[in-house]
Structure formats: structure tokens, C-alpha cells
Amino acid sequence: MGALSCEFVMTPAWEADPIVFRHSRYYPAPSRGAHTRDMDKQELGAFLRSRRERLRPEDVGLQAGARRRTPGLRREEVAVLAHISTEYYVRLEQGRAPRPSADVLAGIAGALRLTGPESDHLHLLAGTAPNRTGLHSRQVRPSIAELLHRIPTTAGFVMSAAFDVLAWNDLAAALMEDFSARSPDDRNLARKAFLPRATDGETLYGISDAAEFRQSVVMELRTASVRYPDDPSIRALVVELRSGSGEFARLWEHNDVQPPSMLTKTFHHPVVGELTLDCDVLHLADRDQHLVLYTAPVGSAAAANLAFLGALGADGIAAR
Questions:
Q1: pLDDT single digits (tens) 101-126
Q2: Residue 183 half-sphere exposure, CB side, CA atoms within 13 Å?
Q3: I need a surface site. Which of 177, 232, 238, 244 has the fewest CB within 10 A?
Q4: Which helix or strand (DSSP H or E) is residue 157 part of?
Q5: Which DSSP letter does residue 275 get?
């Protein structure tokens, strides 16, 4: 690795940080507006550790060696791969380092083999990527609300960044539940997944991939908590789930941020039995919401059963 260029910075911050020998790459010029929020040093360190520990030396072209005592890569190995000093990388994991530049973060992302969503999350934690401020949106765009009722053969609903069901059509109510009979707090799919009421039973709408869905909830909520650090409702939801569900708390500590793709979903419906549907999730970027659509191939048995549910409606199903 080539020699590193260095500079001494005369700053009152010495009193808070005794190290005054600072690499210029870790201090990008503040006037360019690249920093959009404070750096979350503790979360950044935890995320880096979790990504480093999941890698094996052979994953990055290194020899494992016979005397490896720690899981995953060593910190010095990540530093070499990222072309930064070991001391600085160690301080990043310990939550004691200054903010890295975008170039340094790109080097670390490459060294740790981060996916696109993981790299975005890294930048958000470091405060070097734009993030939404204030509260997450719960207002559904009128055109989207109208669209839900123009697709009567598709079960559709809109979900907020905090997993609140905000709008739905009749077929979604027949397939899942009558959301209008629930309070807004009880329309939260994260709570339903991890803190089900006694009347909900053991399953989440009878879906066969409930475990995968719960994993996806944790990943999406972790990202939302970084995008909306000042949103009290998201903070409160995460605290409630971590304290009320051991599974949520365990998954939260994994620091994963890339949910698995869900192309199909199988429901075990109390009226029509097993129903396998195509699942499409469309991101509504302007309000950071998701439009979830369940459809069945034309002419299939699933399509016939879905049509039957639509004819019954939520009230008809409740009466059976």
C-alpha cells in the first residue's frame, strides 16, 4: 500500500479528541454540502462489525491461515482492502473516528462486499448521503387511493415506511382482514408480525413465509429509523418491538438492511384454502410508501378463488 498523505489540523477539537494526526481523506471539504445529517458513530461501528464478521477470508481472495481466532475478516485486512489505515478503521468500529469521506466509504463498501442497499445504509449512518428529515408521510396520494379501486381483480394496499396500512381496496380486505374494523395502531403489519393479539392466532394472515416477512420488517425498519432519526413514532415502534419480541430484538442485532425479494406469496385462507399469488411491491418515492399488489394468472384456480373472495367481500367472509 502506498504512503498516505497527512496533514495537521489546528482545532479546538483536540480537547475532545487527543489524536491530532489526521488523514486529509477523512475530512472532505464541508462547503460542498455533502453532509446532510450527524454521523451515528455507534450504529456505524456496529454495522461495520456485523458486515466484517460475516465475511470469510476466501470471500475476498485471502488465505484463511491456521491461527485465526476471530470470526470473519480481521480489521487490518479490511483496512488493507479499503486502502485506509488500520488505526482509522479500528476507530470507526469503536465509534471514535471522525467522519470519513465518500471515497473512504466507497473503499470500505468494496472491501466488505456490501450490496447496493447496504452501501446506501453505510452512507446514511456516516451522514454523507441525503436523508429525509422530520416525520414519515402517512398521507396517501389521491391518485393512488383512486387507483386501488380501479383494479377490482387485484388485492392492493398502501403501506407507510413504518408498516402502517394506510389505504386498501375491498379485495385486500377480503384476502387479509377488514382493516376498517381496526384502529390505526392495529393496522401496523410490524406489530401484527411480532406482537400478535390473542385473536390473531399464530400466523400472519396464514402466509407461508411469515418468518421471511418478519426478517424483511426488521430490515426495512432499520433503514427507516436511519432515514427518519427525528420521527418519534418510528423510534417508539422500534423500542416497543425490541422490548416486546425476543425474535425482533435478535434480528435487529444482525444489522441487516437488504430485505429478500418476495415474488409470490401463499395464503392459507379460512374460506378458500391455499392461495398462491404473485406479489409486486412498488415504491412510491415521493412519500416513501409502498403499493403492494397481489394478483393471480388469468384463468388459474387462484384467480377464480380470488374472484370468489371479491364477491363475498370482507363482511361476507366475517359472516361465514
A1: 888 998 999 999 988 788 889 998 99
A2: 3
A3: 232
A4: strand 155-159
A5: E
